[in-house]
Amino acid sequence: MKRQVQSLKSGVQSLQFRVHRLGLGMAKDRAICRCRVRLGGRRGLTGRTMNQAPNSTVEAEAPAARGMSGVQRKAVPARAPCSRRVRDRAAFTLIELLTVLAVIGVLAGLLLPALGAAKVRATGTVCFNQLKQLQLCWQMYVDDFPGRLPPNRSHLTDGIWRSTPDSWIGSSSAPHDVDTLPIEQGLLFQYDYNRSVALYRCPADKSRVRTPQGRELAMRRTRSYSMNGNLGGRTNEVQHTVNHNNAIPSPAKLFVFIDEAEDSIDDAHFLVWPNPDTRWVNLPAGRHAQNGILSFADGHVEKWAWQWPKKFNPKQSYWKMAETPRDLNDLRRLQGAILRVEKFASQP
Question: Of 80, 264, 274, 336, which sits 20 to 30 A from 23 (CA to CA)?
Answer without folding.
Answer: 80
